[in-house]
Specification:
The protein is mostly beta strands and 471 residues long. It has two domains: 43-130, Immunoglobulin-like (Sandwich); 140-467, Methylamine Dehydrogenase, Chain H. 9% of the residues lie in helices and 44% in strands. The chain has helices at residues 2-31, 51-57, 450-454, and strands spanning 66-73, 78-83, 88-92, 95-99, 102-109, 116-122, 126-131, 140-145, 151-156, 162-167, 175-179, 185-189, 199-201, 207-212, 217-222, 228-233, 239-244, 250-255, 260-265, 271-275, 280-285, 291-296, 301-306, 311-317, 322-328, 333-338, 343-348, 354-359, 364-369, 375-380, 399-404, 410-415, 420-425, 431-436, 441-446.
Length: 471
């Protein structure tokens, strides 16, 4: 009897050892990855159990794996994935593999580019595309929105969640609406079978006003439902830039071929017109509703109109092609782009004196200020294919420049695509969007705080120009 008891004990002990060995091998195979162990743990993803797994979301044994897929620009970038337990997986993008849930650290490298690092938690199948920034770049390329034909103007919604784009001379859709976080297409808005050229949000964000060049109309659109509410006839020709009074009661429209500005009373739709310099484009109505500044393209004239008497006078003439206006009334200045002079001019609102603010690359067009007015963003189309032809790509890439408004120093620069034109800054200043007009593409970048920009040794401003010429 004693001998039988001993045999049973030995058998049970053997089974227990086999059971432990079986589960040890099984768990080892489940977590094994063809990788090397990190020499030092990453502090942001270590130091205790993974909270996602600790919550019970990870199944014992690691059966609940998720597909993780990503690619990069430039292509074939090197990557390393560091898991919570310190194991690493390395390789060359693109990447697709089932990984266990929980936190991972992804590092992506490519010669001549900044290393991109991201910590993320896998909770479902995840697909990513990463844009690497050239060495020294301070703003960060987040994403592209492709297949947006002739994106002429851009505007973020008042909460920054949406990005609206006009599509010039487009017969199928005049406006497109996209998510500013991931580029998802939200809606298309038909403008009676015509395109859109410029747009502006009402102060409360409930309405969007979009101009249609070919019909000289302006469409009032409900920003929530994306439906057209009213249509205004400017009673002129080739309407382009639209601007609102500070209180949102009046809409101003620059009529390129009409050589005038339409003033629309939004309460009753009444339209009045004021003659201007030839080919008016950029507009700015002062906050006191007393004056309207008009940028004339034909001769580089800046006109100031008295909205009381409806009379105007040219206060400055460059002989170039003034295009767009951005204002900082708290500081008491306007900034005006001149495409023919490759320059930005600064206007003193008290004296109407004008001086050059900064030189730019070829063909500066749209300009925008950050919400705190400390940074001026400038999109430059680049050199045209020919003096009389800008409808096809030219010999150089376009650029987007950033200037410190305190001292006019360039603080970063982006080498863009073919003819960057539209430009918009999110209401919180954290995102920059611009269009590569001839590429049918919108690019979105994150913008760091002003303090980081001004302390970044000019970003890429000292080196980017050598990359503008196409090779």
């Amino acid at each position: 009897m004693l001998q039988i008891d001993r045999r049973i004990k030995y058998l049970l002990a053997g089974l227990a050892c086999f059971y432990c060995l079986f589960w040890a091998v099984k768990n080892f195979l489940n977590i094994l990855r063809p990788a090397s162990r990190a020499s030092l743990p990453l502090p942001e993803i270590t130091g205790g159990p993974d909270p996602y797994c600790a919550s019970g979301s990870c199944r014992e044994g690691g059966e609940a794996f998720f597909d993780f897929t990503f690619n990069t620009s430039p292509a074939n970038a090197e990557f390393s994935i560091t898991f919570h337990d310190g194991l690493q997986k390395t390789g060359i993008a693109p990447f697709r593999e089932a990984l266990p849930p929980g936190r991972i650290r992804l590092d992506i490298k490519y010669p001549g580019y900044e290393t991109l690092s991201e910590t993320l938690t896998l909770r479902e199948a995840t697909q990513k595309f990463y844009h690497l920034d050239r060495s020294g770049q301070l703003v960060h390329h987040l994403l592209d929105i492709e297949s947006v034909p002739s994106p002429k103007a851009l505007a973020f919604s008042v909460n920054g969640s949406e990005l609206w784009s006009t599509m010039l001379l487009n017969k199928k859709r005049g406006l497109g609406v996209y998510s500013s976080s991931d580029g998802t297409h939200i809606a298309d808005i038909d403008l009676d079978g015509g395109g859109g050229v410029e747009l502006v949000f009402s102060p409360d964000g409930s309405r969007v006003y979009a101009s249609q060049m070919e019909t000289a109309r302006i469409y009032e659109i409900d920003a929530s439902s994306k439906t057209v509410l009213r249509t205004f006839d400017t009673q002129s020709a080739w309407t382009k830039v639209v601007a609102l009074s500070l209180d949102g009661k009046y809409l101003y429209a620059a009529n390129w071929s009409g050589n005038d500005v339409s003033i629309i009373d939004l309460a009753n739709g009444a339209v009045a017109k004021i003659a201007t310099v030839k080919t008016p484009r950029g507009l700015y109505a002062t906050s006191d509703a007393k004056s309207l500044y008009v940028a004339g393209f034909a001769s580089g004239e800046l006109e100031k109109i008295d909205l009381g008497s409806k009379t105007g006078a040219v206060i400055y003439r460059t002989g170039g092609a003034m295009r767009h206006i951005a204002a900082d009334e708290q500081k008491g200045v306007l900034y005006v782009s001149d495409m023919a002079k490759d320059a930005i001019y600064e206007v003193d609102l008290k004296t109407d004196s004008v001086k050059k603010f900064a030189d730019t690359d070829h063909n500066p067009n749209t300009i925008a200020l950050s919400p705190d007015k400390k940074i001026l963003f400038v999109s430059c189309r680049g050199r045209n294919a020919a003096d009389d032809d800008y409808s096809v790509p030219g010999p150089e890439w376009g650029s987007v420049l950033m200037f410190d408004t305190e001292n006019s120093k360039m603080i970063d620069a982006i080498v863009a695509g073919n003819q960057p034109t539209a430009l918009s800054i999110s209401p919180d200043g954290s995102k920059l969007a611009f269009s590569d007009f001839l590429d049918s593409r919108i690019e979105i970048f994150s913008v760091p705080p002003y303090e980081k920009l001004v302390s970044g040794n000019g970003g890429r401003s000292a080196v980017y120009r050598q990359e503008l010429i196409k090779k």
